[in-house]
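Limitations

Structures in this collection are predictions, not experimental determinations, and the ligand pose is part of the prediction. Treat each record accordingly. The example that follows, with thymidine-5'-phosphate as the small molecule, is included so readers can see exactly what is and is not provided: the inputs are given verbatim, and the output is the predicted complex.
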Amino acid sequence: MNKAKFITFEGVDGAGKSTHLAWFVEVLRKSGKKVLVTREPGGTPMGECLREILLNQSMHAEAEALLMFAARLEHIEQVIKPALQLGTWVVSDRFSDASFAYQGGGRGVKVAKLEQLECWVHENFQPDLTLLFDIPVEVARQRLSKNITLDRFEQEEGTFFEKVRQAYLERFKNHSDRFVLIDASQTPEKVKENLEKTVLCHPIFKER
Ligand code: TMP
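Predicted complex:
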């Protein structure tokens, strides 16, 4: 049997990653894998409380980064690592790359500070695979405009999301070994086809 893997889904709000995550998990389960689906911020009782605060309460950008990583520490120790040890694959809707994109790119928190937090909270523990759903900001904004309620991040300006997108692409460039870039501006069917062709053939699905 394959060693259990940790897979993360990333992208700007409106890229459609959550829809594709559901389908992807279904495919993994059909192939006989036990899969735990989780999310950030969140994934634990404490993390879900922090999510409520983070998505609704305005705060200093660095406080936001600290809370994201506090929730993450709890998530890794209480949920992600124990599941992997039991042979369960873990698929998370966002992880640390989101902090580099949103708090780093979007809010302007220094990358060196985020790297310190990353080192403190999970040092060498990184996803085995990260799917980055990339989309032009105006297309993502159009998709988001169909939502009835928008959280504190979704209400940000287009310029904020442009910075988030660029920071994600920078992360992709610097960690290309674990990233797969998905063109999320295509139709959902095309994205699915692309996922089937490129992602499910990835070496991590063949490792023993
Ligand atoms: P979601 O809408 O994908 O569930 O994510 C909630 C919001 O949280 C999303 O707008 C991105 C933001 N976020 C950060 O700003 N930093 C982080 O580290 C994470 C995990 C999410």
